[in-house]
Description:
By secondary structure, this protein is α/β, with parallel strands linked by helices. The protein has a single domain (4-132), classed as CATH 3.100.10.10. Helix content is 35%, strand content 23%. Strands 1, 2, 3, 4, 5 and 6 form a six-stranded mixed β-sheet that branches. Helix 1 packs antiparallel against helix 2 (17-27) and helix 2 (17-27) runs antiparallel to helix 3. The longest helix is centred in the N-terminal third of the chain and has 11 residues, at 17-27.
Amino acid sequence: MKSKSLIKKQTERKNNRELVETIMLASKKEEWLKVAQILSYPRSKKVNINLEKINDKTKQGDFVLVPGKVLSQGEMDKKIKIAAFNYSEKAKEKLKKAGCEVLNIAEEIKKNPEMKGVKIIDAGLKNPTLSKTKEVFNK
């Protein structure tokens, strides 16, 4: 687990202002610290996940968080609430068409500081895993 000082140090190298603000906001809340750690990873470890993987790993009514970008390959056939750092335009369209609630991570941190009911999709490996909050990630 990364320390807050290491997260801050890695964040200093980032040029995307929205990313930096999201990382700093997440690192202030103990519950959101794991999200800050993932977002502060180098670009080579960036989380990108397709809709088909999200659809496979979720159930109707789930609230999932993707600490990275949601891509449009595949279809979504469930109504879920999803928060991500970024979405491709097609992915956003498909999610809204399926009736999903689409948020960004910074909004969710402000609305839900205790991270209640949020499951994190960690796509850092070839096979994404769905982790309930406060559980260890498969890294």
